[in-house]
Design goal:
Blueprint (H helix, E strand, L loop, with lengths): L1 E6 L4 H11 L3 E6 L7 H10 L2 E5 L3 H13 L3 E5 L18 H13 L2 E4 L2 H11 L6 E3 L19 E5 L6 H4 L2 H10 L4 E5 L6 H8 L4 E5 L3 H10 L2 E4 L8 H8 L3 E5 L4 H5 L4 E3 L4 H11 L4 H14 L2 H15 L2
Parallel strand pairs: 1-2, 1-3, 3-4, 4-5, 5-6, 7-8, 7-10, 8-9, 10-11, 11-12
Helix pairs in contact: 2-3, 3-4, 7-12, 10-13
Length: 327
Amino acid sequence: MRILFVYSRRASFVEIDLDLLRERWEVREWAQPGRWANPLTVLREVRRADVVFGWFASWHTFWPFTFARLLRTPSLLVVGGFDTANEPEIDYGYQQGGMRRRLASWIIRSASSLVANSEYSRREVVVNVGVPYDRVTVVYHGVPDTIGELPDGEREPVALTVSNVAWVSLERKGLRPFVQAARLAPEVRFALVGRWLDRSVDLLRDLGGANVEYTGRVSDEELAAWYRRASVYVQASRHEGFGLAVAEAMLAGCIPIVTAAGAMPEVVGDVGVQVARPDPEAIADAVRAAVASPQAERARARARILERFPLAARRDGLFAAVERLVG
């Protein structure tokens, strides 16, 4: 069986699904980073496929899923992010209205089957797009264990967050309250790891304290080193369809400090600290309390990810979803 795998950028979660599907089937990639594609070329690719598999409802999935619908080719769409969100307070999400809402809704309704990465995203697509609840299957992300064993000894007093630095991320990913919390906890070192996409990093430097390090883009090895070094991982987001970085940090023994937004309560469970909203004072208080957490609590954070979000469960869920499509 041949799968046409459609995506806009090669994120880590995209690579994971590509590798899993290739364990069983022939997979051909269709990467479209921008809005425009040659429809005839896309049509040719869809004709060759037995299944169309796509990540997110946006411009890159419009032609593949439209042609799959017309040709009656089974299609599976992974949703749960900007495509299903409606967050007007932070101007985030295609479901706020206009052309982007019509685009995303058409693609979502055109798909034969939908997969969400959390129960939160499943509810979101049902409420905001109006698809039936039973059309959406929850298959949680699988988190590869690149850590092995937890490092011995005490952790450095480091509070970490990972995100691309852009204007849109200041509120959605909680970068503004993160650096503001640093001013209130000067005894802790704060680190913002992620590529700078615009000049928003200059504003963050003005808002944050002298104890904030802005690393820019780092390699996978450097990121793993940050996870092993940090005591605390902070995700002060206003919307998260899952929160993969939180899970990766917990796997390395970081104590999570998260808001109650989106799917993050599903990810962290009763581990770490949940703050009601992305308030700098609440974040600073939680960081102070969590940096000295014992090794047993760090082991509990790691155990939750290993037990609840193993790669094998993602594999089984995707395989089952594809097999249902083809009968």
